[in-house]
Structure formats: structure tokens, C-alpha cells
Amino acid sequence: MAKSRFEYVRNYELPDPLMPGTFIVVRIDGRGFHKFSDTHAFEKPNDKRALDLMDKAAKTVLDEYKDVIMAFGESDEYSFLLKRNTKLYNRRRSKISSSIVSLFTSAYVFHWLSYFPNNPLRYPPSFDSRVIVYPGEKEVRDYFAWRQADTHINNLYNTAFWALVKDGQSTTQANKTLQGTDSKDKNEILFSKYGINYNNLPEQYRKGSICVRRPTIVIDDQQQQQQIEESTTAGVSNISIDDPAVGSVEDDSASQTRINGVIRKEKKVKKVKPYEGIDGEIVVLHEDIIKDGFWKERPWLLQ
Ligand code: ATP
Ligand code: ATP
Ligand code: MG
Ligand code: MG
Ligand code: MG
Ligand code: MG
């Protein structure tokens, strides 16, 4: 087909590839959510419905984009980590960034009424989006540690701030009361004046939300046989490997053989890489991601 004489304008679209082999993080943040949360009567300092809705929208993104392997959210923001060697949209920055924030936003609106049945949307919310690339594991871990530390600092401040306001201080007064205080002082104010033990507040508020696919254990045939024998010896005749945590695919050719009176149930197990697990159910966790534990349990995130 002949090109039109207008087509030259296409050359003004410049390529925007992200460096190969780097970790891509997309962070989205609600635009003007200070006002949005007021208009929609969010509870302060933490409206659980709003946090759950954010988590739901993030899960939608993980559901749709298999290369998004983890997400961390707090307040009106969410960060999405893509697997290091993703080829999504040929690693084009604006395609990746815009597709994720667009899906997140439409999911947020789509599910709004399930979380706020009595507060219809008064106007369409929007989110901004940016992309950051990190060269290595250390920077990725430090990135998420930074966001979770931020969650803690903000939540402690907001909890103390709203306790003072609910106690009758004006917002200006409450700000002033908290000026120059450190964490210890804020904990002390909460505990001695309001009987609030900060550490007993819900983890969702203190630690934010992590979306990941359930860890899948890859069991090879030998390990599996061993497990079957162990459980048979222990009196369990029928072990099940149907647990969705096991990201393996069974076929229908399960067979039983009797050897020395022990029933050996054999099932063929196809090995799958964890993040490609067929069921790979997405879970939302509220736990520490600053220490090693979370990452050690999920080595594929940083591969
Ligand atoms: P910007 O457009 O620059 O991001 P913003 O008004 O969205 O401005 P943020 O720094 O992103 O400012 O802060 C988001 C604000 O939204 C919080 O300070 C808080 O007031 C409110 N907010 C977000 N989520 C919740 C929630 N779950 N419960 C209560 N308030 C919330
Ligand atoms: P990509 O994700 O790459 O954009 P796509 O399926 O969205 O893929 P497009 O080139 O953007 O492909 O084309 C959009 C398609 O959507 C059209 O080819 C057409 O089939 C359909 N479509 C869009 N708007 C209309 C409309 N108003 N009426 C009928 N069909 C439409
Ligand atoms: Mg912002
Ligand atoms: Mg915001
Ligand atoms: Mg924010
Ligand atoms: Mg299209």
C-alpha cells in the first residue's frame, strides 16, 4: 500500500526502550487523593475499604500481566516489579507505564462500588505513573525497603496526628504538637494519652500490601516418590499434591502399584518455573520486606 504524504509525522515518534537485563519498576500514585479521600469520606488515618480496593486493582494488574511478578502498595500508591528479562511491549517505556496505570485505574473504578457500596464516585479518579529501572538486586530490594519504611513513617505520623485531631486539636495544632518528635515520642503520645499500642495496629496499615504469586514448589519425581512413601508409612494412604501452592500440572495418568504391601501412587508431574505456575494464585501479604526472609523464600523475584 502506498504511504500517504502525511505519514512522515510518524518519524517524530521516538523509540523509548528500557535497558535490557534491568529491573523495571512502575510506580503509580493517586492524583490529588488528599482531596479525593475527603470528598469520598475516607476514614482517617486509614480507610481499610480504600486500601483493599487498591489491593484489588493491583491484583488485576498481576492477573493480566504475567511479567509483573510483585507489587507493593501503601496509601494511594502502588509499585509494580517486572521480571528482569521481560519482553513486554519490547520494553517500551511509555507502553509499559501507560498500560499498567490505565488498567489499574479502570479496575479501581470498576470495583469501586463493591468496596464503597454507600459512597458512589463523585468524579473520576486518576493516577500518575513513572518508570524506574534498577541495575541489580540490591537496588530493587532497597527500593521496596524504602517504600515500606515510608509506609511506617507516614502511618505512625498519621496515626498520632488523627488521634490528636479526634481529641479536639485543630490540624494546625496537631501538626505543631508533632513537630520535632521522633518515633519514640509518637509511640509514647499514642500509648500514654490514647492507650494505643502502635505495634498492635493492623499490619496492612503498618507494613503496606505485597502482591505476589504463591510460591510454587517444584517437586521432581524422586522427591515426590519419597514424600509418598513417607506419608504412606505414616499411615496416610492417599497423599494429595493438589495443593494450589504446588505449581505443577498433573496429568490423568495417575496409577497405583503395590510393592511390599505399600501402595505407591505415582503421578506424573510437569515441572514449571515458579512465576509461570499455572495456578500461581495471587496473594496479598502484609509482612516485612526489608529483612532477608521474604526474598529468600522467593528467589525467582530477583532472578
Ligand atoms: P499528588 O497528586 O501529588 O499525589 P495527593 O493529594 O494524592 O497529591 P499524596 O502524597 O499522594 O497526595 O497522599 C495521598 C493522600 O491520600 C494521603 O495523604 C491521605 O490523605 C489520602 N489517602 C490515601 N489513601 C488513604 C486511605 N486508605 N485512607 C485514608 N486516607 C487516604
Ligand atoms: P493493540 O493492543 O495492539 O492496540 P488492538 O486490538 O487494540 O491491539 P488496534 O490497531 O488498536 O488493535 O485496533 C483497534 C480495533 O478495535 C479495530 O481494528 C477494531 O477492530 C476495533 N474497534 C475499535 N473501535 C471500534 C468501533 N468504534 N467500532 C468497531 N470496532 C472498533
Ligand atoms: Mg504524587
Ligand atoms: Mg497521590
Ligand atoms: Mg501518595
Ligand atoms: Mg488498540
UniProtKB/TrEMBL annotation:
Gene3D superfamilies: 3.30.70.3000. It catalyses: a 5'-end ribonucleotide-tRNA(His) + GTP + ATP + H2O = a 5'-end phospho-guanosine-ribonucleotide-tRNA(His) + AMP + 2 diphosphate + H(+). Its cofactor is Mg(2+). The chain crosses the membrane at residues 96-116. One of its GO terms (molecular function) is GTP binding. GTP binds at residues 29-34, 75-76. The keyword NAD does not apply. Binds 2 magnesium ions per subunit. Keywords: GTP-binding, Magnesium, Membrane, Metal-binding, Nucleotide-binding, Nucleotidyltransferase, Transferase, Transmembrane, Transmembrane helix, tRNA processing. Mg(2+) 1 binds at residues 29-30, 76. It is an enzyme of class 2 (transferase). One of its GO terms (biological process) is tRNA modification. Mg(2+) 2 binds at residues 29, 76. Residues 6-135 form the tRNAHis guanylyltransferase catalytic domain. Residues 138-291 form the Thg1 C-terminal domain. Its EC number is 2.7.7.79. Belongs to the tRNA(His) guanylyltransferase family. PANTHER family: TRNA(HIS) GUANYLYLTRANSFERASE-RELATED. Adds a GMP to the 5'-end of tRNA(His) after transcription and RNase P cleavage. This is tRNA(His) guanylyltransferase. It comes from Kwoniella europaea PYCC6329.
